[in-house]
């Protein structure tokens, strides 16, 4: 992303933001409430149109492209608050996650890979999604996104509303997705303590611009992090 500006109506939230996402990494995006993190993810995924600047993916400009085109090109987005179909079964949710996969023959292997990663989803395949616990719904949301074999997975606060032990479990799953499938991950997260250990790099966003980009290790120093917030 280069010089990215975005917002709502006349209100600008991102002010010329520059940021790289490298193949194979887990990039953690931190920042205060209202800094523009969700706006950034939504603009990347095509839910918001950039007002200025560029978003390039594998050398091609994708700014302003539709979410459907992004999904077909291997970019998946798990929105804040799970984003599952609450009244449908776990299995149907996963099958719908593969809507962009043109090759139906790949469905069984993808389903098996997701079940191996999250065995609870296999055990509960016939359960109605909305009756699963918060953590299980988050795993289902990630599982849905994996059903079309994305190369890039964008996650908006996957820990929200989860008890600390579940946050740890979800973070480990995200690391496993990255290691096992080689998926590049861009994650916004408020839980700094549990997300920093899995990050390859970190970015701190302040009022719509990047104020830190690099090694996550210095950010484990609470004082240093607070200076950036
Ligand atoms: N649909 C909208 N219409 C108008 N303003 C919005 C809309 N969504 C977000 N905003 C504003 O844009 C700014 C950035 O919001 P955004 O959700 O991107 O922040 P964030 O960094 O993700 O915050 P948080 O950590 O609290 O989720 C805020 O001032 C917010 O009020």
From TrEMBL:
GO MF annotations, alphabetized: ATP binding
Superkingdom assignment: Bacteria
Annotated ranges, domain ABC transporter: 1-228
Similarity remark: Belongs to the ABC transporter superfamily.
Protein's name in the database: ABC transporter ATP-binding protein
InterPro entries: AAA+_ATPase, ABC_transporter-like_ATP-bd, ABC_transporter-like_CS, BCAA_Transport_ATP-bd_LivF, P-loop_NTPase
Gene3D superfamilies attached to this UniProt entry: P-loop containing nucleotide triphosphate hydrolases (3.40.50.300)
UniProt cross-references to Pfam families, sorted A to Z: ABC_tran
Organism: Marinibaculum pumilum
Keywords, in A-Z order: Amino-acid transport, ATP-binding, Nucleotide-binding, Transport
CDD domains: ABC_TM1139_LivF_branched (cd03224)
